[in-house]
Design a protein that fits this description.
The protein is α/β, with parallel strands linked by helices. It folds into 2 domains: about 170 residues, Rossmann fold, CATH 3.40.50; about 35 residues, no CATH class. About 30% of the residues lie in helices and about 30% in strands. It contains 6 helices and 8 strands. Strand 5, helix 5 and strand 6 form a beta-alpha-beta unit. Bound molecules: guanosine-5'-triphosphate and magnesium ion (MG). Magnesium ion (MG) binds next to helix 1. Magnesium ion binds next to helix 1.
Length: about 210
């Protein structure tokens, strides 16, 4: 497959412990949900290959542990992120109130796409975050898209990642066009191996080395 047909996007999930980050990643990458996961230690990496508008995209996902003791690591995980999902639990308003902390202290690169994800939308009777609160936050965080998802009932999970691609793919294609226009076509190639940790895929990506 030609290099220009396959793109890797780095996606990082941030949010308080227990909000449902690992559950989203597992549902998206393995179509599985478990009622209880061990709290993520440090970070868990997963990859998923997606066909988007006839092009192959590889989502390289970092599911970070939300416990307080790992919060200082967020900027390290976010350093090369193309997109960051800030997650909260719709049944716990305290996790919703932390959205801005994650946004401001998570070391999210300026160029990264930020999306806010309200998890556990199946727990309608335990809803603690009202639509009015969400609406106010949307107004405050202009230009950031909000989703509500349920990993348990697999609602809106893949839509979040498809939204990321709908924004990132055209940006990358444009950037690549501009880049290729300024780089000589005779430059060499190097191989980068990407291991599919969650689904067992192994991908080899050919990349032009320019510097
Ligand atoms: N009902 C319901 N429960 C969920 C959903 N997503 C996650 N949970 C439950 O919430 C708990 C925490 O989920 P995790 O995915 O481990 O949360 P996390 O954000 O990864 O937590 P840390 O790794 O500690 O940061 C688990 O018991 C899940 O089963 C959901 O969509 N609906
Ligand atoms: Mg986790």
């Amino acid at each position: 497959m030609a290099m220009s047909d396959r793109k890797i996007f780095r996606v990082v999930l941030l949010g308080n412990s227990g909000v449902g980050k690992t559950s989203i990643v597992r549902m998206f990458t393995e179509e599985a949900f478990t009622a209880s996961y061990p709290s993520t230690i440090g970070v868990f990496n997963a990859q998923k290959r997606v066909n988007y508008n006839g092009k192959t995209a590889i989502l390289d996902i970092s599911d970070t542990g939300g416990q307080e003791r790992y919060s200082s690591l967020a900027p390290i995980y976010c350093r090369n992120a193309d997109a960051v999902l800030i997650c909260y639990d719709i049944t716990d308003v305290r996790t919703f109130e932390k959205i801005d902390d994650w946004r401001l202290t998570g070391g999210i690169p300026e160029k990264a796409l930020i999306v806010v994800v309200g998890c556990k939308s199946d727990l309608v009777h335990q809803r603690d975050v009202t639509p009015e609160m969400v609406s106010r936050m949307e107004t405050k965080l202009k230009n950031i898209k909000f989703f509500e998802t349920s990993a348990k009932s697999n609602q809106n999970v893949s839509e979040v990642f498809m939204y990321l691609l709908s924004v990132l793919m055209p940006q990358r294609t444009e950037g690549q066009r501009a880049h290729l226009g300024s780089v000589r076509s005779t430059e060499g190639t190097s191989n980068i191996t990407v291991h599919g940790k969650s689904n067992g895929n192994v991908e080899t990506k050919e990349e032009t080395s320019c510097c």
